[in-house]
């Protein structure tokens, strides 16, 4: 047989090198770094985990990557998942949770089995088509699915198996990211290090987790932040200092102007301990709260910081929605940022009465103060001077006769909710608009059909918008007088009140000049210090009240029962003669 011409050999070598280069570009710096497949003696469900590590100096986007833990189904990583340089991501199998920058939850839907305890494998692909395998490892004594694929790609040797680990132990690379596809690269960890380095330092303090309680935080309300601080090192850590602060720029350092909520000093830390901080006084808005720990004797600081994004109150309001469009037009809803700062809606969701969560965006997306965002079923509708987004999986279909709309933040805490029905207003092509963004969302008096000639006002002030411009009395009404004749001008009056406590229970009623109660607006309503409520001039039976002077009675009690108040105001209901 003759040798091929030189140019053909060069072409073959070139193709081979191109294939190798493509394999390295596809994310080969990301490896399976540690895993625990048998965490519990009797029930491993929800406790198994796999740790990935990025040994590169650049961030890697893992959106759409495919993980196969030797059982079906495959787990496709959600969009927007990124792993930083020399960083870890921890994947919890068959477990529900809120994805963060460091923890990813597979969920439980459609999964009926765990990783096997006697033999198994983990395969990692750079896409759901599984045409580019990135890493592979198997344990036990039998060849597993994708072993041949990994061997052909040069990332594993057929017939090589890691020894199985004892219950609650893990298998991990001896050195983070140093995987030369040999059994000798791995060892069994009696003390697993999920989310942390596999090489223990003499002193290594880590912020393991952050929680807030209660999950739903009221504006100016009090809540508790708890952080688990763990000594991952070999020696006792002395005189650690823990700071809890607002990290506005996300640089992991408390800078000038960033508020310090707590500073704790401990004598020593040998294992783990919980740091607690009582926080209050946050105005309505979104906040990035951070926990950072430092110790003069520490050898490794990459895991000394962790943050959590929370909302005080409901900074983003459902402000308008079109549920009964003309044929061929989109259904949509409008969001409005009523807080004083920008709100990042990355990871936020919207749902209807089916309870299926639709992620609005997997990437950073900000609504500026006083700004709008449209969620729509068709990407180029409606015409609006603001950003339009089609949620992941589409906008939930809005029922013509009534439905529920819920907006949740990235922690799945409800930000806003409205449950409408057709009695609120139903006209083909006309949107339901909110009278004022600070009125209670789930109240029919806060909504009305758009009076705009085009039937809606996406991305701009609502056509039925009304404002209370009265002073700082305990309860006031404005506009006063008002005329509920559906001409789009002063059709509702807004009652505004202020309590002497941060939280209270509020009752508001309307009486005519004879002292008869004509409308009960709020009953045992749990409120923050300030609130608003609209009255459409109708009684409890839905009938329009006659013209005249009406008395508004506010009765409120402190949330814990330490005091009550009463306040009155009058409002004039006018009309055309």
Automatic annotation (TrEMBL):
It comes from Candidatus Edwardsbacteria bacterium GWF2_54_11. SUPFAM superfamilies: Lamin A/C globular tail domain. This is LTD domain-containing protein. Residues 21-141, 304-415 form the LTD domain. Transmembrane segments: none annotated. Pfam families: LTD.
